[in-house]
Inverse folding.
């Protein structure tokens, strides 16, 4: 079973959460920032409530599974659109697309996403587009103009500006360093 925990930002957070899980007789299999997998298929309401209370005292928040599922649906939709579609429309209206896909008001989805993830949906979209650009640059199958077109950027300059803002380097610098490895991130870590 996975538990979603808000405000985990460092190794000490992971350690503190692990200690609390063990104190509540839960058996963590893996603990990452924001998500914990335990061996138990179910957690009683009593244990969940006690764990939630203790985590709040430590500055964390045990998230309701329904919130986590909505966040997962938003992320999956964005990843699918950016990483698995032929090309993004230049005039894509993400708020309408997300709202239509999840059948919920975009403002409430945006607010939920920001409160749980600590970044806006827009920032997440930009991060995913930059990761896709890294992939396309890394495999050297397309030039920057083609990459900008595929990702729905109005120009190579717009792509380059966002790329540098996210990575600290230009696409050209990234391309030169690609053989040194370690420049790309797994999608679930973006």
């Amino acid at each position: 079973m996975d538990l979603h925990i808000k405000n985990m930002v460092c190794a000490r957070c992971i350690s503190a959460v692990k200690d609390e899980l063990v104190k509540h007789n839960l058996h963590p299999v893996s603990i990452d920032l924001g998500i914990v997998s335990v061996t138990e298929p179910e957690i009683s309401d009593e244990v969940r409530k006690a764990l939630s209370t203790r985590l709040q005292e430590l500055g964390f928040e045990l998230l309701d599974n329904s919130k986590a599922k909505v966040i997962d649906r938003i992320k999956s939709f964005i990843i699918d659109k950016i990483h698995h579609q032929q090309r993004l429309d230049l005039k894509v209206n993400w708020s309408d697309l997300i709202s239509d896909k999840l059948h919920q008001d975009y403002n409430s989805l945006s607010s939920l996403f920001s409160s749980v993830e600590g970044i806006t949906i827009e920032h997440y979209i930009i991060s995913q587009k930059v990761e896709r650009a890294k992939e396309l640059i890394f495999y050297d199958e397309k030039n920057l103009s083609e990459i900008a077109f595929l990702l729905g950027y109005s120009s190579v300059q717009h792509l380059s500006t966002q790329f540098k803002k996210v990575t600290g380097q230009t696409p050209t610098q990234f391309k030169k360093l690609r053989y040194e490895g370690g420049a790309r991130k797994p999608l679930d870590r973006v």
About this structure: The chain has a mean pLDDT of 87. The chain has two domains: 2-63, 67-189. The first helix runs from residue 11 to 23.
